[in-house]
Design brief:
about 400 residues; alpha/beta; 3 domains; eight-stranded mixed β-sheet; seven-stranded mixed β-sheet; globular; binds flavin-adenine dinucleotide
Length: about 400
């Protein structure tokens, strides 16, 4: 029987990675504590909430779907439009705060203890277990755990305490939930260009299927390869963008959304008694910045290995390495591929983006994109596209050369 201050697993971070890992471990009857420094789950909001319905393979919808989108309207730097219409649901827009809370409620129901307003200050491996120092209010507690799981986001302190490397790249995101935006609620809009969102893209995501007086609530924002301060400035420039700007005239901000997004998997997500999951491990798709699906997927792998380690009483790096292998086998290749694509994209000038647009604007190519496009697995589409439009390879050449 575990003592009061002893846990099988302590999870630092009550975001989507922490709650789902906690739920999956607790379902195997282990004693799990989740510590979250904020007093509320899901806040502050750091997500545009666009995901594929695949996330519901792991966690139930629980009324969190706000809208379903069937494709994207993509705008080049000069304003050319490509409409990718799958004519069926390709992605869903979720109430991200609601979804996080519903996942945490399930973790608690599965038996996790949740401590809100509790910040992990330090952790130390003592050769057998890990001792963790936690501050709650003005009190500091110490506890022992067999496994420490860092689900503590992009700036992972757990990773730092145990000398695990950070994800290779970081971009900044800034946006807002706006009251009334003049866009088609069936499509996400994507805006490209080095003056719009350097090295990434900006988005307008309709939050509801219903327009009222021609407008719809939407999440509008961007991510760029720059500081949050710059992302904030680029966000304000969206209001004078020649195409997006007029669509925002009647909008008012309801809440702001800001945060950093890690790109690329960490080289090692485990050490003795410790595993990293979610943003902390770079489990984010570098082509879209989406991390909800990948975090939940990897949480499943993390929990499976945690359960095995706890059952056989082996919490060593050698045993936990299976977690790293499992998620890398499952999604690692896709994430590495995504990082390569991102690096190709980073090197493109606006005139090259226009060239790319022209190559893709043919009807048969657009239909190919609609059929094979999948924001969780973009490599499927790129393989097909490079075969069908070999001229696209010229953009990848400078990067491919760096391999040799
Ligand atoms: C602007 C923006 C838009 C995005 N849009 C999308 C999108 O549309 N679709 C999508 O799939 N993904 C999107 N993402 C990415 C997605 O939000 C993240 O990948 C995902 O939320 C990561 O979850 P996580 O649990 O790993 O980390 P986080 O959500 O960052 O959770 C980490 C938690 O750990 C807590 N914590 C940290 N340190 C400590 C400590 N020492 N003690 C206690 N608690 C601690 C933090 O308070 C936090 O709650 C977006 C990200 C940004 C920034």
């Amino acid at each position: 029987m575990a003592k009061v201050n002893e846990y099988d697993a302590v999870i630092v971070g009550g975001g989507i990675a922490g709650s789902t890992t906690g739920k999956f471990i607790a379902e195997h009857d282990h004693k799990v504590l989740i510590v979250e420094e904020h007093r509320e789950v899901g806040k502050p909001l750091q997500c545009a909430g666009l995901v594929t319905p695949r996330i519901f393979d792991f966690m139930p919808e629980n009324g969190c779907v706000l809208n379903r989108v069937r494709g994207a309207k993509v705008y080049s730097p000069s304003g050319k439009e490509l409409v990718i219409d799958a004519k069926k649901t390709k992605a869903v827009v979720i109430d991200r705060v609601g979804f996080d809370r519903s996942c945490m409620a399930m973790a608690v129901r599965a038996g996790c203890e949740l401590s809100l307003g509790a910040k992990a200050l330090a952790a130390k491996y003592d050769g057998n277990t890990v001792s963790v120092k936690i501050m709650k209010g003005n009190k500091i507690f110490s506890m022992n755990t067999k496994l420490l799981i860092g689900a503590d986001g992009v700036q992972s302190r757990v990773g730092r305490w145990f000398n695990l490397k950070r994800p290779p790249l970081l971009i900044s995101g800034f946006g807002a939930e706006l009251s009334g935006v003049n866009i088609d609620p069936r499509f996400v809009e994507i805006y490209l260009g080095n003056d719009v969102a350097p090295n990434f893209f900006s988005w307008a995501i309709p939050k509801s299927p219903n327009t009222v007086d021609g407008v719809v609530p939407a999440r509008v924002g961007l991510a760029c390869d720059s500081s949050t301060h710059c992302a904030f400035q680029y966000y304000h420039q969206l209001f004078s963008h020649p195409i997006l700007g007029p669509k925002l005239i009647r909008s008012k901000p309801i809440q702001y959304i800001a945060g950093a997004i890690p790109l690329g998997p960490v080289p090692k997500s485990y050490t003795n008694n410790v595993m990293l999951v979610g943003d902390a491990a770079g489990q984010v798709k570098p082509t879209s910045g989406g991390g909800v699906y990948t975090s939940i997927l990897c949480a499943k792998h993390c929990a499976k290995v945690a359960d095995h380690a706890l059952q056989i009483k082996d919490h060593s790096a050698k045993c936990l390495k299976e977690y790293h292998k499992a998620w890398m086998n499952d999604i690692g290749v896709e994430l590495k591929h995504g990082l390569r694509l991102h690096k190709v994209y980073m090197h493109l000038k606006d005139n090259q983006l226009e060239d790319g647009f022209n190559l893709l604007s043919e009807k048969s190519i657009l239909s190919l994109i609609s059929t094979h496009g999948d924001i969780d697995f973009p490599s499927k589409l790129t393989t097909v596209l490079f075969k069908k439009v070999p001229a696209l390879l010229k953009f990848a050449r400078p990067y491919l050369r760096s391999f040799f």
